[in-house]
Amino acid sequence: MSDFPNDDSLEEEDAAIEASSEMEEALRDATQAVEARQTTADEAAEESLSPDKLTIELLSQELQELKGLYEEKLKELDDQNEQFLRLQAEFENFRRRGLKEKQESLKFGHQNLVKDLLSAVDNLERALEHGAQNTGLEASGILDGVELVHREVLGALAKHGVKEIEAEGQVFDPAEHEAMGQIPNAEVPPNTVLEVLQKGYVIHDRMLRPARVIISREAAPEEEAASRGRE
After folding, report:
1. Fewer CB within 10 A of the end CB, N or C, for the chain?
2. What is the rounded CA–CA span in Å between residue 6 and residue 15?
3. What average pLDDT does the segment 146-163 reach?
């Protein structure tokens, strides 16, 4: 046997040597690629933790908190403004009611007193009607005195807004007149006031008492016949 290797063994050894070189180069490339990726990851991590980015994130969080606080305070301000407007409206209504009550008190506060005086006016007018039927000198003097008192009382009432309701000859108005009876009458339209039994009065625009009246109505055929028979 020869001590020198043959050609086949030399070729196998050369192939083994060449394969080892390729593997080493591949390993170097893989190592460089891993190191490059690690460097990129480190740089990204370092960038993500940079002071500028942290400052921006903190400012963004603080801005969101301030925005939420602003919206909360704005809502509170709107609620307070609405409450203020409601209180202002209530106060204005209260002021108007107070002013109206004061005006009505000044205007109608003596209404009950006037009602009581109307009875005295009625009695004075009855005395005047009764006195007019007597023609004696003494009765005439008394009548003048009563008439004077009657005028003074009516003048005092007029100063406080009291007026007599026009009734006789007027068309019946249920807002001002109180019908006490009806009489057939062909000379005037139906529902015409023929007689005033008791005068009515108003104080300013408020009713004190309605006028009690007798009103007309159409005569029935038999009533017309009886009337013509009497004529």
Report:
1. N
2. 15
3. 85
